[in-house]
Amino acid sequence: MHPESRQRRPLWFRLARGLFFTVLTLATLVALLWAFENWRGERQWQALVKAYAAQGDPLDASGLTPATVPDDQNVAMTPLLRPLTEYDIVKGEPVWHDAPGIARLDALKLPPLQRDGRSEDGRISLSEWQSTFRATNTFPLPATPGSPAADVLAALNRWKPELDELESATRRPHTRFNRSNTQDSVHALLPQLARGKALSQILKLRCVARLAAGDGDGALSDIEFNERWARALASDPLLISQLVAIAIETLGTAMAWEGLADHRWNDAQLQRLQALFAARTPREDMKRAMRGERAFGLAIMDRWVRDPAAMETDGIQSFKSEDPYSPGRTLPRGWVRQNQISLVRFHELMAERSDRWIQGGQPGHELGGDVVEQLKQERPWFYNQLTLMLAPALGKAMSKEDRVLTISRMAEIVCALERYRLVHETYPDSLDALVPALLQALPPDPCTGD
Fold first, then answer.
1. Cis geometry, peptide bond prior to residue 237 (ω within 30 degrees of 0)
2. DSSP-derived secondary structure letter, 181
3. 10 Å Cβ neighbour count for 432?
4. What pLDDT does residue 361 have?
5. Which residues is 88 bridged to in the sheet?
6. Are 364 and 409 in contact (CB under 8 A)?
7. 366 phi and psi angles, rounded to 5 deg
8. E strands present in 265-325
9. CB-hemisphere CA count at 13 Å for 89?
10. For residue 155, what pLDDT is reported?
11. Element (H, E) at 221
12. Three-state SS for 174?
C-alpha cells in the first residue's frame, strides 16, 4: 500500500488497530502465563507425589484403611451396626439398603426433656427424666412410680438387647465400615457418627441412674463400655471421627464426675477409673486422621483439576456462578496444584506441631495460628486460598484433643485425691502426698509439659 494512503487513515482507525494489537498481546501473554502456571504446577505436584511415595507416605488414601477383617473381629459387622455399612450415595446423600435396620438404630434415641434436665450444680436430674419417660407412655415402666433411679433404669431396659449386643461387639479388635472411597465416606459418616453419639448419651443416663441406685460396678462398666465405643469410632481416618470420639470420651468423663461429686466410687473402682484416664494419651489416631484429612482434601482438588466446574458444585461459595468465565472455570489448573502443595505443607507443619505437643510443647491454639501465618509467609496468597478453606477444621480438632487430654490428666489426679480421702477422711495439703502410693508421678500438662 502506498505510504500516502496510510497517512490518510483516520485517527480512530489507527487507535483501534493499536488497541487490538495491545489486547492481542496481553491475551497472548496471559495465555502463556496460564500455560506456564499449569505446566509448573503439574510438574511440581508430580515431583512432590513421587517424593512422598519414595518415603512410604503416599499422598492418597492408599494405606489408610487396613485390609478387610473377618466379620467376627469387626465391631461394625455386629447386626445392630451392619446397616450403616450398606449404602449407596445418591445426590450426595446415603441411601441405606436395610431401611428396617436403620429404623432400629434411629429408635435408640432419648426423648426430648420437658425441662433442662440438670440440677443447679450441673448433675443430671433423674426426677426430670423419670417424668419425661412417664409422659411419653412408650417405655416399660411399672404402674406405680418408684424412685427416679429405679424408673429411669426400668425405662432404659427397653434398649437392653441393643446395648448388650454393642457392649459385646466393642470387645472386638477392629472397626471397619468398609466404605468404598474417601469422598463418599464423608456423606455416610455424619449419620453414622450421629447415631454413635446418641448411644453414648443413653449410656451416660444409665450410668448416673446406676450410681444413684447403688450399683457402682454397673455404672463403671458403662463408663468402660463408652470408652471402648469411642476408641472403635476413632479408628476411621477422618477428623470427624476423631471429633465424635472426643465428644464420647467427654461424656465418659462426665459420667465419672457424677460419681466423684457424690463420693460414690470405692477404691477398687477409682483405681480402674484412674487407669482409664491415664490411658488417654497422645494417640496414633490423630496422626492417622491428619493423613486421612490430607488425602480427602487432595482428592477434592484432584477433582477440580479434572473438572473445573466441580468447584461450584462442591460447595465452594466463592466459585458458585453460572458465568462460563467464573473463577471456578477459569482458575489455572496449576494454581490448584500449587494449593495441593500448600495443603501438604500445612499438614507437615501441623505434624511438627503435634510432635512438639507430645514432647511438651506450646499450647495447641497458639501454635495452630503460627502454622497458618507461616504458610502465608512461605507461599503466595493465590497458592494458599483453597488450602486455607480446608485447613481450619484440623486446628480446631487438635485443640479439642488438647482439651480432652488435659481434663483427663486432671481427672486422673482427682481419682487419686478421692482414694486418699477414703483412707485419711480428708484431702492432702499438697498433691505431692499422692506420690508414689497413689500416683507414680504427677502427670504433666499435655499442652505445656509442666
1. no
2. -
3. 9
4. 47
5. 95
6. no
7. -70, -45
8. none
9. 14
10. 96
11. helix 216-233
12. strand
Residue 91 region, left (φ>0) first, then alpha (ψ -120 to 50), else beta? left
Give residue for cell 472403635: 232
DSSP letters spanning 357-381: HHTT-S-HHHHHHHHHHHHHHHS-G
Rounded distance between C-alpha atoms, residue 392 and residue 350, angstroms = 11
Q: What is the pLDDT of residue 399?
A: 79
Strand, coil or helix: what is 36? helix
- Rounded Cα distance, 133 and 354, in Å: 45
| Residue linked to cell 463418599 | 184
37 neighbors 337 (Cβ within 8 angstroms): no
Following CA atoms 362, 365, 366, 372 in sequence, which dihedral angle do they give, to the nearest 10 degrees? 120
The radius of gyration of the chain's CA atoms, rounded to the nearest angstrom, is 29
Question: What are 303's three cell numbers?
Answer: 477433582
Closest CA to 444 of 287, 307, 308, 282: 282
Residue 93 is classified by DSSP as E
For residue 243, what pLDDT is reported?
A: 85
Q: Which pLDDT does position 211 carry in this prediction?
A: 97
Phi/psi of residue 96, each to 5°?
Answer: -80, 140
Residue whose entry in the numeric block shows the C-alpha cell 504446577 = 41
Residues of the chain with pLDDT under 70: 1-8, 63-67, 92, 116-117, 178-191, 282-283, 310-330, 354-369, 392
- The CA distances from residue 273 to 24, 124, 195, 265, 419, in Å, are 75, 20, 26, 9, 11
The pTM of the full predicted model, rounded to 2 decimals, is 0.81
Closest CA to 412 of 266, 208, 305, 257: 257
For residues 107 and 138, the answer to whether their CB atoms sit within 8 Å is: no
- Cell for 234? 476413632
| H or E segment to which residue 90 belongs | strand 87-90
Angle of helix 216-233 relative to helix 239-261, nearest 10 degrees, comes to: 170
CB count in 10 Å sphere of residue 91: 6
Give how far Cα 228 sits from Cα of 46, 166, 234, 421, Å: 41, 10, 10, 29
